[in-house]
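User: quick one, fold this
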Amino acid sequence: MAPKRPTGAGAFPKAVETPAPKSSDPTALYAALDLGTNSCRMLIAQPKGSQFHVLDSFSKSVQLGHGLESTGKLSRASMNRTVNAMRICRQKLERHGVKNMRLVATEACRRARNGENFVAQVRRETGLELEIIEPEEEARLAVISCAPLVSTKTDQLLVVDIGGGSTELVWIDLTNVPHRERPRAIMRLHAGFKSDPGPFAAAKVVDWISVPLGVATLRDQFADVEDDAARFALMSWFFEENLEDFSPRAAAQVREGFQIVGTSGTVTTVAASHLGLKRYDRTKVDGLRMTTAQIDAVIQNYLSLGPTGRRADPRIGKDRQALIMSGAAILQTLMRLWPTDRLSVADRGLREGLLYAQMSAHGVLEDTPY
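Assistant:
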């Protein structure tokens, strides 16, 4: 279960063509579905300026990867739960008449011996074409989804996407890009990383890594450890061990001009807990900047609550409480390893990246500042 990365630093995945037809209709609707190890989530949106407007959404915890660590296969119960969720997604797509869409699956389907069989089952029972994407593209999509949150003052950027079955890290050097162009340079990665950027200054991908440890898989690694604090410490240690091959880790880094953007349910849950939100509010969370001290305080509070207290905490939620400590172990490890005391919180990820990539490829996003 070694981390996956390209051969040599500076490499980045080639562009993957969207299966949606070419379009220049600014009123067209687009859909993006992200089937992860734990959740099935979908957005239906319409281009709006340099962004998009969400018309409908769907999110459900399906626990597709439940038991995968021990059996190497997706269970029948998990697959049935997921197919039922996909049926709801199909109904929404049909209701809105969506023609442009990408529906992707990630780590659970990549690793499961019966992943392709499950994709065939989804096609047979729902009519939806699910696509298993590689870690390279998952990393790229996570990066471009966060483009609007990149500061024009950022020289070095680390984008972290903590998923259910894997964690993607992408390190980007923006020092050769004019300050005002830096968010847009991130967005241009929708076409893949090119050595010849044409007339534009390019964001340089220094290195990336896909660690096959996410909130569900890391939790399952230490499920037999009864002591809550000991389990958290072991998860932190084990995740750090899996980062040894990520080249920027060993290099001395300058604190000034460095930005970490974190995207995941873990990051947004920690942010909501910090803000004391009993009812989640995306407008207050997305784009929030948290200090390391604030993050540590939230995690210490989680530890002091214990499993029973976390289950009862409305800021965490019943769907997240079983996974929050493994995610917190990943997040705290990352903040300890790199030279910053702040994290930019992104309530966005694969779905948003899929939408941006489709819309950018079709030329329906306006070339205006973020």
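User: anything notable?
Assistant: The first strand starts at residue 30 and ends at 35.
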